[in-house]
Amino acid sequence: MQQNGQYAIRKVQDNRQGLELNGFHQVLVYADDVNMLGENPQTIRENTEILLEASKAIGLEVNPEKTKRCHSEAETLAHVLGSCPFGEILRNSRHHKIRPVIATCLQSNGYTIYEEVHGIADTGSHRRIDIITFKPGEKKGYILDPTIRFETH
Fold first, then answer.
1. Residue 14 DSSP SS3
2. Which of 66, 124, 134, 148 has its CA 20 to 30 A from that of 34?
């Protein structure tokens, strides 16, 4: 990266907030690609703003079209975590890990559990219900579809 590009990256590192990796803070750089890392969305947002301001101050521009991975819609946090096709495998993996944990917990508390129940909607479309649960003798039951948008470790 050119000298002036290094200036912009150092401005982000000077902020000293967020994830530290090998003694450096929240930025991975390779050629002209920059990846922000952070412990929360606010830190990433702040550091991105610092990088944009520092880049502009030295005459560098960020092309917004090159910052998007999913071009089907606006990449809001809700989109990236909830519906972006690039995250589908992770979302499904988290879903399949948590569903049996929830079912076991409910069962240990006296609930009857049915998992992965096939159903047909009023429109005729086929649906898979993740968990149907009820307590024997009670007049109400629950349909559960667990979703884990992201993990923190």
1. helix
2. 148
